[in-house]
Amino acid sequence: DYYAYLRRTVLDPLRLAATSPSNVRDLPGLAPGYLRGTLAPYWGPKSVGEDGRLVYNPSWEFTGGGLVSTPVDLARFVKALAEGQLLSAPMLAEMKAGWPMEYPLANHRYGLGLQTFDTDLGPAIGHSGQFSGYRSLAYHFERSGIAVALQINADVEGLMPTFMRLAEHAHT
């Protein structure tokens, strides 16, 4: 089963104890997420209902994400991935190659589940993510070896400037 394989090959070896499947509506400790106005008429203003459970079943995401995590675990994961602890050098190089895109910053490339772009702090590689009521960004800065992750419990856009300020702070 996918989750057992993931636990055995990635989560346990990297000690990502705060990362688990998000394949049920009851995810203990999950902060309520806040939905954009366009989604609120369908689900309500929050992703978590009065009963403490998600208002929708997250299992539809499966291997497109399908995990609940913390910023610490996300940073550990992206650092391990970027530093070659999870894939062979040729596979990681293929992920980093990507195709030119316009978002989130100039010189952005995307391919095979990995975003790369140039910053004042040097090349950054990682990924952003969203789920109804939540946003995450996790990137590894190759020059310094520092990984930074940011999570927010609202599905808002435009977090990259805030993320880059956080990353600059982590580099001081």
Counting H and I runs of at least 4 residues, what is the number of helices? 5
Return residue spans where pLDDT drops below 50 for at least 5 consecutive residues: none
Main-sheet strand order equals 3-4-5-6-7-8
Structural class by helix and strand composition: alpha+beta
Cα radius of gyration in angstroms? 16 Å
Outline type: globular
N-to-C series of helices and strands: HEHEHHEEEEEEH
Strand content: 15-25%
State the share of residues found in helices, binned by percent: 25-40%
Quaternary assembly = single chain
**End-to-end CA span:** 43 Å
Q: Describe the biggest sheet?
A: 6 strands, antiparallel
The number of strands is 8
Average predicted confidence as pLDDT: 89
Features:
two-stranded antiparallel ribbon, 6-stranded antiparallel beta sheet, globular, about 170 residues, 5 helices, alpha+beta
